[in-house]
Amino acid sequence: MKEKNGLYIHIPYCEHKCFYCDFSSYTGREDTVHAYIDACLKESEKYEGVPIDTIYIGGGTPSFIDEKEILRLLKGIGDIFDVDPFSEVSIECNPNSVDPDKLNCYRDAGINRLSIGLQTTDDEMLKRIGRIHSFSDFERAVDASVRAGFSNISADLMYALPWQTVLDVRKDVERILNFPLKHISAYELRLERGTPLYGQPQPDDDTDREMFDVILEGLRTAGFERYEISNFALPGYWSKHNYKYWELCGYVGIGAAAHSFMEGKRYANTANLDEYIKKNLGGGSAMVYCEDSDRTEEEIMLSLRTTKGLNMSHVGLESTNGFIIKMVDNGLAVTRDGYLILTDRGMDIHNSIVVALLEELGI
Ligand code: SF4
Predict the structure, then answer these.
(1) For residue 60, which atom of ligand 1 is closest to its CA?
(2) Secondary structure (3-state) at 232
(3) Residue 24 has what pLDDT?
(4) What are phi and psi of 132, to 5 degrees?
(5) Which CATH architecture has domain 5-245?
(6) Is the pLDDT of residue 174 over 80?
(7) Which CATH number fits the domain 295-360, given the four candidates 3.30.70, 1.10.1740, 1.10.10, 1.20.1740?
(8) Is the beta carbon of 15 within 6 A of some atom in ligand 1?
(9) Atom of ligand 1 at shortest distance to CA of 59?
C-alpha cells in the first residue's frame, strides 16, 4: 500500500509574543487572517488528490484566530487532498484562547486531537516567560475539551526555565498528572539570541538533568511511555503526525515558514506573512527548494530519537560491530531485532552518539 503523507499547516498568529519565542509568528496582524487562509488554500491546490492521513495545525497559536477560519481551512483541505477518513487531525491551542463554542466547532470540523501549550503550572513563572495564560485557564481548557468530546489531549511542558527549581518541576509533574491527558511533550527551554529572555541564568547541566529525571520518573510511574526523546504517551497515543518526521515519511507543509519533505527533497516557504499571501494569491509560489535529504544521516539522527530505534541494516551496521558493542556495554544502547535503541542515558547524549556513529560509518 502506498504510504500516505502528513500535512502540516502553519498559522502564524499570536495574541502576544512570549519572551523566549523565536518561532515564526506575528502579533497585531489579525486583519490578514482571511487572506492568509485563502492563500493557504491556494497553495494547497498544488497537491490536489495527494493522499494524507495526518493533519497538524500548528503555529503560532491556531486557536487564537476565529474558529470559522479553521473550519473553512479544513473544509477546503478536505476538498483538495485525498484525506483518509481515519486521519489524526491535531490543532495547537493556547489555554486562554479556547472556549466551548470554539471546541465544538473544532470537533465538528473533524479535529480529533488537541495539543495544549501549558509550559508550567506556576502562574508567576508563566508571567515571567511572557505567557498570557494562567494555570486555571489550562484547567478550564482541559475541562471544556473533555466536555466537547475530545479524548486525545496532549499538553506541552517546558523545563530549565530561568528561575525554575527542581521542586517547581516536581510540582508541575504532580499537577499535570491530575488531568486526563494522553500525551505529554516535555521540552528543555533553550534561549535563543534576540529573544527578550536571552542571557537570563538557566539551571546548570546537573540541575537540568535532575529536572528531566523528575519528569521521566513521574510520567513513567503514571503509565506514560517515553517514545521519543521529548515525547511521552499512554499506550496507543503516540503522535502519528510527528512520528512521520522521525520516520522520514513524506509531508506537505502549507503556510508561511512551513517546510515540506517530498520524494527525498526538502522545501521551505517564505516566513514573511505578506510575501506568502501576495505570492500565493497572485498565482505564484512562496516555496523554495532547500536540499536533497541525506537519507542515511537523517535516518540515524531521527530514528535514534525514538524508542523504535535505528534499523541497523539500513545503514550497513551489525550488532557485532565494535562500536555498537561498546555502546551496549556502556549502557548507552540496546539492540533488539536488528534495531539499535538508545537507553535513557544514551538519549541524554543523543547528539554526541550521532556524531560518533556518523564518524564510524565514514559519513
Ligand atoms: S504562543 Fe508559541 S508561537 Fe506564539 S509567541 Fe508564544 S511561543 Fe511563540
Answers:
(1) 3
(2) strand
(3) 87
(4) -110, 15
(5) Alpha-Beta Barrel (3.20)
(6) yes
(7) 1.10.10
(8) no
(9) 3
